[in-house]
UniProtKB/TrEMBL annotation:
This protein's record includes keyword Kinase: no
Protein name: DUF3298 domain-containing protein
Keywords tagged on the record: Signal
Signal peptide limits: 1-24
InterPro entries: DUF3298 (IPR021729), PdaC (IPR025303), PdaC/RsiV-like_sf (IPR037126)
Domain Deacetylase PdaC span(s) in chain numbering: 38-140
Domain spans labelled DUF3298: 160-238
Pfam family, one: DUF3298
Tagged with keyword Cytoplasm: no
Gene3D superfamilies: Fervidobacterium nodosum Rt17-B1 like (3.30.565.40), Heat-shock cognate protein, ATPase (3.90.640.20)
Length: 247
């Protein structure tokens, strides 16, 4: 290898190193508030979500959050918004249309979305997202969601990609669930009133991280009646041993 070739590869190596460093260290997360205009007989929207800055990974994170908020607020699914602010305006407008058609309607629509960084390392950003939407009826609907994001690429991580043995993780969680809710190992998982499909234990869709370990959330109606509220399970990092790929 000639000196020129060695020099070429040396600078290529430095470029790759700089690229990796920029991806993992250049993300800054703050909070951005987006609220509807305050007025009499208007729908009320309050949004407080993380805002990422720094590089293309930050752009990806912001897009994920943008898509999430739009999905929560989208009442009719007859339109497609490109921004949270536009979807807030659509939510308020849909309420005004409903109020015009049904002037005696007493219910005032409201929506609240709050997000925070529940766990962050050089490899992972886990975001907890709490939402509540009321569009009439006996009560609104509150839910907790998680986003697990690759801190180097900005890609959303699938739950199965977090574990070396996903099946073993599921077995561990079911054991913990049965212990918490006093369901004997040989009894049906629905024997105490839960409503798992086909009487088979399943993990929730909402799985994230906090400083202690893995958090799993069943939202209202997922496996129980609304009155039971949110059902939460926490698995400490120590219990997962070497089963976590990203920590």
């Amino acid at each position: 290898m000639t000196f020129i070739q060695m020099k070429k590869y040396y600078f290529l190596f430095l470029a790759i190193l700089a690229f990796i460093s920029c991806n993992s260290d250049g993300i800054k997360l703050t909070t951005e508030a987006i609220n509807s205009k305050s007025c009499k007989d208007c729908a009320k929207v309050s949004i407080n979500l993380p805002k990422a800055t720094g590089n293309f990974v930050a752009d990806s994170i912001n897009q994920h959050l943008n898509d999430y908020a739009i999905q929560v607020l989208n009442y009719t699914e007859e339109h497609t918004s490109e921004s949270i602010k536009q979807e807030v305006e659509n939510f308020v407008s849909e309420y005004q249309k409903m109020k015009k058609d049904f002037p005696d309607m007493a219910a005032v629509w409201e929506a609240t979305i709050d997000g925070n960084v529940s766990y962050q390392t050089e490899d992972l950003i886990s975001l907890q997202l709490d939402s509540y939407v009321y569009t009439g009826g006996a009560h609104g609907y509150g839910a907790v969601s998680y986003m697990n994001i690759d801190a180097k690429t900005g890609a959303l991580l699938e739950t199965k990609d977090l574990f070396t043995d996903f099946s073993a993780f599921k077995v561990l969680v079911e054991k913990k669930f049965r212990q918490i809710h006093n369901i004997p190992e040989k009894e049906s998982i629905n024997s105490t009133g839960f409503m798992f499909d086909n009487d088979v234990f399943e993990l929730p869709q909402n799985i994230g991280y906090n400083e202690k370990g893995i958090v799993l959330i069943y939202n209202p109606y997922d496996i129980a009646a609304y009155a039971e509220g949110m059902i939460k399970i926490e698995i400490p990092f120590d219990d997962l041993q070497n089963n976590l790929i990203i920590k």
